[in-house]
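Now for today's protein.

===
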Amino acid sequence: MTTEKRYSEMNEHELRTEIGRLREKAMKAEQLGILNEYAVYQRKAVMAQSFLVDPSTIVPGEIYRIDGDEGMFFQVDYLKGHFAWGYRLGGDRADEALPISMLKSVKSGK
C-alpha cells in the first residue's frame, strides 16, 4: 500500500517530478480526447507548482496577470496558504481564489 504525500510535504525535486508526471497524464488524456480528465491533471499541476512559489512574493493590494488567461488581471486582497484571494479586474468584483502559481507580476513587463 502506497501513501501519497501531500504537496506541502514534498521537497522541490519531488514536486518537479510530480508536475512532470501530471503534465504527461494531461497530455495523454488530451490525445485520447478525455477533456475533463485533461482539465483535472492540468489543475493539479498548477496546484503543485504553487508549492514552488514563495508566498511572500505575492503582495496583497497588488495587481497580477493571470497566467493562462490572456489579458486578465487579478487584484490580490489577501493570501491563505498557497491561494491568493481577490477579484478579476473588469469583472463584477466577485471574490475568488487562485493558486499563487497562476499569478505573474505586471511590473516585470512580461
In short: The chain has two helices and five strands. The beta strands are 63-66, 73-80, 83-88, 96-99, 103-105. The chain has a mean pLDDT of 92. Residues 34 and 97 are 26 Å apart (CA to CA).
